[in-house]
Write a structure and sequence with these properties.
By secondary structure, the chain is of the alpha/beta class. It is built from 10 helices and 9 strands. It has a domain of about 180 residues: Rossmann fold. The radius of gyration is 18 Å and the shape is globular.
Length: about 260
């Protein structure tokens, strides 16, 4: 398993504890379907990380999010900090660019408040811009999924958002060990968890190369609803939204659209 490319590194931690046929399939580049593994194999093979602090959720355990069961290439364990009860509530992912416009920030706040008021949970990635606006406006009804371990030092502004999120009753999740650093590949990989946890992914503002488009494509692959805020042509930070609309994404017309997506799951 040592020769696996970086996107499989989150799996490497558990590969030596899995049945040999599963490890060999992963090494060959095959996707691991959790639903195809016998519960006994998971129970015996997917171990928590007792040497590290923080609760580890296992794919064979009672607290594992139902939304992640059976997802191709899904995580086998998650380290959690905060309110695990949020995993039982319907969720919508609100995602977008770090370099957003005032319009995008305002929409993120409005849509996050609408989700929380309807009894739902906002899922996002704790990045600057759209993610942060959504997390902060959800008032604790929010789940942040990190592209690094929980023990890795964050910028001061991000650490502050995390503290407030947790103080208000939110949840932070990651599939990486406590001191695992962020890298270019960890964020696209993190995005599949954001999409998997949610009933729908809503892209508020995204450029051509935005990670939000990556999250959107995971949503389509997982059979989740995908909706996008339309924009006028010529605004670079909304160009990715137009791309997704061309690919068939639904149009967000306002908070009512978000609430309808939450209720449709």
């Amino acid at each position: 398993m040592s020769g696996l490319p970086p996107p499989w590194s989150g799996f490497n931690r558990y590969a030596t504890r899995l049945p040999s046929d599963v490890s060999e399939a992963a090494a060959a580049g095959a996707l691991v379907m959790l639903a195809a593994l016998p519960p006994s194999s998971l129970r015996d093979a997917v171990l928590a990380c007792p040497e590290e602090p923080g609760p580890w959720l296992r794919a064979d355990g009672p607290t594992w999010p139902a939304a992640l069961l059976g997802l191709p290439g899904g995580p086998v364990a998650l380290c959690a900090e905060g309110n695990l009860a949020l995993l039982d509530r319907p969720a919508v992912a609100l995602v977008g660019t770090r370099h957003c416009t005032p319009t995008g920030r305002s929409l993120a706040r409005d849509y996050a408040r609408a989700v929380a008021a309807a009894g739902g949970v906002v899922v996002s990635g704790l990045a600057a811009g759209i993610d942060t606006e959504a997390h902060m406006s959800a008032r604790g009804a929010t789940i942040a999924v990190l592209g690094q371990g929980l023990g890795v030092t964050m910028p001061a502004w991000q650490a502050g958002v995390r503290r407030r999120l947790l103080a208000e009753g939110g949840l932070v999740l990651t599939e990486y060990p406590m001191q695992f650093p962020a890298a270019a590949w960890t964020f696209p990989r993190r995005n599949r968890i954001i999409a998997g946890l949610a009933r729908a992914v809503v892209v508020i503002e995204a450029g051509h190369r935005s990670g939000a488009k990556n999250t959107a494509h995971h949503a389509v692959a997982y059979g989740r609803e995908l909706a996008v805020v339309p924009a006028l042509p010529g605004i670079p930070s909304f160009a990715g939204c137009l791309d997704l609309l061309e690919e068939g994404a639904a149009i967000v017309r306002g908070p009512d659209t978000i609430v309808a997506l939450l209720a449709a799951g």
